[in-house]
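Backbone-to-sequence.
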């Protein structure tokens, strides 16, 4: 049983190492997209706040 678990873990590690670069690229793309969306929302909310609350 322990040997099967060790073999399974080794296979999972190999598969993760093989797909690690692809996963990193996907994660970077998602993070950049989310960061751009959040930055755009912050700019829009700041403009709304300044235009309608502070400087009516």
């Amino acid at each position: 049983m322990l040997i099967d678990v060790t073999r399974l873990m080794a296979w999972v590690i190999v598969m993760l190492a093989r797909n690690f670069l692809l996963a990193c690229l996907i994660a970077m793309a998602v993070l950049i997209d989310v960061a751009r969306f959040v930055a755009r929302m912050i700019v829009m909310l700041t403009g709304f706040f300044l235009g309608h609350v502070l400087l009516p």
